[in-house]
Amino acid sequence: AIQLTQSPSSLSASIGDRVTITCRAGQGISSALAWYQQKPGKPPKLLIYDVSSLESGVPSRFSGSGSGTDFTLTISSLQPEDFATYYCQQFNSYPYSFGQGTKLEIK
Amino acid sequence: QVQLVESGGGVVQPGRSLRLSCAASGSTFSTYAVHWVRQAPGKGLEWVAVTSHEGSTSFYADSVKGRITISRDNSKNTLYLQMNSLRPDDTAVYYCTRVPPRRLGGMDVWGQGTTVTVSS
After folding, report:
1. Of B44, B45, B61, the CB nearest to A95
2. Could you tell me which residues are beta bridge partners of residue A54?
3. Could you tell me where the beta strands, DSSP code E, fall in chain A?
4. Would you say residue B101 has pLDDT above 90?
5. Which residues in chain B are closer than 8 Å to A43, comparing Cβ atoms?
6. Which residues of B touch A9 (CB under 8 A)?
């Protein structure tokens, strides 16, 4: 199984900040990576697929990059609604796997 | 607009069985793969299982292999998860989700989840 390690596990930031979350895969996963946002009591919401493709309806302040084993999710200017937990997920091979999550909190 | 609605969760004793269902709206259910993903209380997301669009191929997480079976009935637009020999660490919210047709990954539609509690 491919392990995904996110860093940091938690992050405090202010409105308007630029934030980057990293996801490292235990082996190469090509471009088979997605990012999700989850708020308490809600299902996850797809933000990015195929490393850098923005899901329809997701604000352009979200972007993804990377290849091979190292990937990043960037939020260019934090908005109040962005405070949530973020997960990366690989779909290169089964069993699929998620990172452990990064909780983004207000400073 | 595709919607997924899970049902069948509840409180069950260790070692017992439970079957979850996920009803999909729309006429395109047979065109996409569907997955189950779970989340234990206060924990992260864990991928559980997938079945292909026609139901002929399935894969499972190591943690559930041999105890859980995913299936689908395309004539009823319904996905199932048969869970046997349940353990306390199966306690979680179970979500059904899909990958859109013609895409390899990225789960774009999620149900609201159904809660399974395994406890004596």
Report:
1. B61
2. A48
3. 4-7, 10-13, 19-25, 33-38, 45-49, 53-54, 62-67, 70-75, 85-90, 97-98, 102-106
4. no
5. 95, 97, 110-113
6. none
